[in-house]
Amino acid sequence: MLNKLTLTKTIQGLKNKKFSHRELYADVQKSIEQQNKDLNVYLTLNEKALDTAEELLETPLAGVPIAVKDNFCTRDFRTTASSKVLDTFKPQFESTVTSKLKKSGGVIIGKTNLDAWAHGSSTETSGYGRTLNPRNTNHLPGGSSGGSAAAVAADMASSSIGSETAGSIRQPAAWCGAVGLKPTYGRVSRYGVAAMASSTDSPGPIAKTVEDAAILLNAFAGHDPLDGTSSAQTTPDFTQSLNTSVKGLKIGVIYQDVAEIGFANDKLMEQLKVFEDLGATVEKTQAMDPHYAIGVFTVVQRGEVSSNLARYDGIRYGNDRSLFGDEAKRRQMLGTYTLSKGYSEKYYELAQKVRTLLIQDLNRLFETYDVLICPTSPGFAKKVGATKGQAMFGELEDMLVEASAVAGLPGINVPYYRDPKTNLFLGMSIIAPMWREDLVIQAGDAFEKNTSWNTWRNES
Predict the structure, then answer these.
(1) pLDDT per residue over 165-190, tens digit each?
(2) How many domains does the chain have?
(3) Is residue 182 situated within a structural domain?
(4) Using one digit for the tens of pLDDT, what is the confidence trace for 44-72?
(5) Are 170 and 411 in contact (CB under 8 A)?
(6) H or E, element range at 161
(7) Is 126 within the bounds of a domain?
(8) Does some domain include residue 348?
(9) Range of 319's domain?
(10) Which of 40, 4, 68, 71 is nearest to 309 (CA)?
(11) Average pLDDT score over residue span 224-246
């Protein structure tokens, strides 16, 4: 089945004429038809995808089918952010990420489900029903990019695009046994993405391998004059970090003292011996307690949510504010409260000060280590319904990546263990200093190619 191929092998196969676009898309469409009704991955499908693809063979992405999270605006193509507020919204402009994706030869096969407005880590807050984890349908795919991660895990696309505010790429990738790469804040344009927390939102790829993620990041990274937070930093060729030795690399393992992640930590330490065998140095080290990051992210994010969602007034988008879901209402109310007169100093400004301490702590560690590693999530994917009555579900599940997110650092999730009984995965988060995506790609690629946890590497 051609839909099971990695992005890399799909591009190679098309360019070498081992198979045609028509054959590739037939397998992808069959996979979607067989699984989408049960998994609820796609909210809107592109019926003209194949017509576009066949004209793109000579482009870098060669017309491969890519799934896109439904909070990226796509011109004249339904964009809902999984909220009924935008149920009939068809943007009159294109997000920079999807525009660059198309110019590189990627074809949007469909728009994927997410937690409404990207509020959550489960895809259970979607206004269109939850998505299920293809690895085990009794469990959740994570979120907020749960649909994008599930599309990859179910072979319903060659790869996908997600967005992360604090964990929303890496955590669903971990729960679905895929690779998820969160770039440095400002490396990829936010223009045309439904804003959640504007100071941390970061679009990025979810893919089958580290190599696939690097190829996809090449397609849409770079400065954008339409985004005031987009960096003018030179964008490297991220594939140059593949297949490079990690000999001499200094790795710091953080959060070993967090009680909630005992099993994940034990398995992680077993797997990190691979790096030592490859010549890297692996040491346990002390980082600032990640529980502080929970409070910082909760306050900062909800403050920014209250501002960003104020624009959806029912005039420009067709449906009014009564159609906001419960999670969006809660976040707006808490955010408005923490920003109000007399309380902003007590909550929002204090959170920003602690945020600075988290940034300084990570910078201190990077004076000694090239990369830092920890589990991406405290444990395996939670069961369906786990979010009921859990107002802090997302913050607790993302606690190990929140500090790196509020610091704007690049990070990648790579699978490092699979439970043979449940078929569920654990993933490691590899983070590096700002603008050093090359290091997370280098380390992630080396681990992936010297272990057997990636389920796609042997697909021919």
Answers:
(1) 999 999 999 999 999 999 999 999 99
(2) 1
(3) yes
(4) 999 999 999 999 999 999 999 999 999 99
(5) yes
(6) strand 159-164
(7) yes
(8) yes
(9) 2-449
(10) 71
(11) 97
Contact 175, 380 (CB under 8 A): yes
pLDDT at 313: 83
- What CATH number is attached to the domain comprising 315? 3.90.1300.10
Annotated catalytic residues are 69, 144, 168
361 half-sphere exposure, CB direction, 13 A CA radius: 19
Predicted confidence band of residue 341 (pLDDT cuts 50, 70, 90): confident
Which value, to the nearest 10 degrees, does the dihedral of the CA atoms of residues 45, 140, 165, 304 take?
A: 90
Sequence-ordered alpha helix ranges (H) in 273-398: 273-277, 291-308, 326-339, 348-366, 393-397
How confident is residue 7, by pLDDT bands cut at 50, 70 and 90?
A: very high
Whether 457 is covered by a domain: the verdict is: no
Q: 3-state SS of the chain: helix, strand, coil percent to 5?
A: 40, 15, 45
pLDDT at 72: 98
**Predicted local distance difference test score (pLDDT) of residue 316:** 81
CA–CA separation, 305 and 298 (whole Å): 10
d(CA 230, CA 224): 6
- pTM of the predicted model, to two decimals? 0.97
Classified as helix, coil or strand, 118 is helix
* Alpha-carbon span 276 to 44, nearest angstrom: 46
- Helices 7-15 and 21-39, packing angle to 10 deg: 150
Q: Return the pLDDT at 219.
A: 98
